[in-house]
Amino acid sequence: MEAAAAAAAAAAGGGCGSGPPPLLLSEGEQQCYSELFARCAGAAGGGPGSGPPEAARVAPGTATAAAGPVADLFRASQLPAETLHQITELCGAKRVGYFGPTQFYIALKLIAAAQSGLPVRIESIKCELPLPRFMMSKNDGEIRFGNPAELHGTKVQIPYLTTEKNSFKRMDDEDKQQETQSPTMSPLASPPSSPPHYQRVPLNHGYSKLRSSAEQMHPAPYEARQPLVQPEGSSSGGPGTKPLRHQASLIRSFSVERELQDNSSYPDEPWRITEEQREYYVNQFRSLQPDPSSFISGSVAKNFFTKSKLSIPELSYIWELSDADCDGALTLPEFCAAFHLIVARKNGYPLPEGLPPTLQPEYLQAAFPKPKWDCQLFDSYSESLPANQQPRDLNRMEKTSVKDMADLPVPTQDVTSDDKQALKSTINEALPKDVSEDPATPKDSNSLKARPRSRSYSSTSIEEAMKRGEDPPTPPPRPQKTHSRASSLDLNKVFQPSVPATKSGLLPPPPALPPRPCPSQSEQVSEAELLPQLSRAPSQAAESSPAKKDVPYSQPPSKPIRRKFRPENQATENQEPSTAASGPASAATMKPHPTVQKQSSKQKKAIQTAIRKNKEANAVLARLNSELQQQLKEVHQERIALENQLEQLRPVTVL
Amino acid sequence: MAVCIAVIAKENYPLYIRSTPTENKLKFHYMVHTSLDVVDEKISAMGKALVDQRELYLGLLYPTEDYKMFRKLHNSYTDVMCNPFYNPGDRIQSRAFDNMVTSMMIQVC
Hints:
The complex is a heterodimer.
Chain A: H1 2-14, H2 27-43, H3 69-76, H4 81-91, H5 93-96, H6 101-115, H7 166-169, H8 176-185, H9 194-211, H10 219-235, H11 245-264, H12 275-288, E1 296-297, H13 298-306, H14 312-322, E2 329-330, H15 332-346, H16 361-367, H17 374-383, H18 391-405, H19 413-423, H20 425-428, H21 430-437, H22 444-470, H23 483-494, H24 501-506, H25 517-529, H26 536-554, H27 560-564, H28 568-582, H29 585-590, H30 592-608, H31 615-654
Antiparallel strand pairs in A: 1-2
Chain B: E1 4-8, E2 14-19, H1 25-44, H2 49-61, H3 70-82, H4 95-107
Antiparallel strand pairs in B: 1-2
Keywords (chain B): Cytoplasm, Endoplasmic reticulum, ER-Golgi transport, Golgi apparatus, Transport
Main location (chain B): cytoplasm
Function (chain B): May play a role in vesicular transport from endoplasmic reticulum to Golgi.
């Protein structure tokens, strides 16, 4: 390019400005101009322009250019008429009376110069210039030099990677759009080969559709872009040197993604996801998680995104941006946003400060509604702020919301967590203050979503503090079956509304053993207390603790922390069937009660000092006590039966 | 109102520490470190009073906080934790966390 410019400069310097100077065009320009010339010539009825006599003719010197295609083209460049006259004069068409290829090319280059803000001089065309831009009508995918009456105000951007970015700075008003386009296009790594660029031209007018206020923007660009994917995809040089095929395919897919990004990155909206990208992301999502309406857990997503070879801090930041509700898992729209950000980053785009509106989950769900996403739609609609959305997005959201609201399932965990939090007396007072404090910032949707979750986390802190305090388990003194311990468990059940749900989290549902410190404690407790049950306690603990631990994590969708604070009843019901399977039915379910009570009593005492006992508790205590005594007997009997079986088996094993 | 915010790891090193530039940062570092001693003292207290004391110490901090700081801090901290790319023990480099801390330091200062 520079060589060509230098040669042109030298040639122009050599030959003065009398006639059209010999013009050396870059390859891109060459292709573009020859195409345009061919169109003009073809439109004029001649063959593909190769010889001067075949060229279109324009009546020189007319104030209003003739209806020839060349004149139309020049008018399409949106330069003032006098500039066009200057150009035609300079290029020598007026002199020779027709637009030969040389004149045509010079004229085109002068148009480009004029559009870049340079004066219409021969010297202007010596330097590198962007390709000239012409207003086109959007009849079909091809460039047409339509009549001015048909021009709809769309612009075709012929992308042109040039080193002279400063030329972009001096623009007319109509080129201001390009000013935003070119800096964003330049980082793209694709080589400035003209044919793909030029082929992209007719499709790029779809991009401009989005910029203008015309309707029906989305379908046409998406359709138009699809045929382009193939040639671009084939040219993507994915580094296929990875030994693992999976990784190789992934890397290739990332480079294909880069090409897709090139094709589909709207010059001023690199954060918009196109249809092909969307499909690609959805396929990748499905490869990680078959159910599109469920989540990808954090670790799975981490492994997947680490393959993109971005640095960990960047991936961390991308995660921060895309995981809108900060739950450690990615829904489909969150995943698409994250993937899109990764692709953009790999293509050289700097990461944004905040999640762009086109990547927010609400927008993504609205733009690409699918029936499987009903629950997330409801989730987002319950909390989404319309402030961020553009008017047409709102329209779409409203339509889909009206459509999908009828089918929507029960409120998701955000709403349920709201209910749970309403139970907590200590948190309630802080709630309204928190909500009122949050200003209407762009992150409002995130903060609003975070609010319900924050309440659940607030309980976690106390619980964690308690748990940590209990972590070095001290063997409690032996017979601990007192009223207080039994009462503590019942207090939980009875005072569930008033007792902070931390208790319920701490106290795992009775049938199963509580997590973490509890198995060890329960073992010790059972050893100390119920000698007859000694043999069964450890096994039970071993059985139930994994079962208990599995249950929260297996509950779909996998949000263990939140699930733990579900109403105890529900958790209890969930736990009971699972542990019932592991051991003898009724006895097993009631067996952990004493152990749980003992350890929970210790943990609970601290909280119970703050809770007032009332007479209901006492009545429940007495009832429970009798129940426990009965169950203790049953467990005794079962233990005896098991020991007998063990004795029977023992001689067999010894042999 | 907050002039210094620090997040200390289990191993007593700061995961995140920031103070307003008006004061000497070193002084705040020392203060944070000495506050760890106070917490340790509370935790290591023996007997039944342990839990009560600790709860009073920490528990009051949380539900009845006059400055709505701890909750926000904790929420942001959990957000950082939720990020699968965050390894526990790393310095906290989350931009959202930084923004929140900045807002807290500015808000009542």
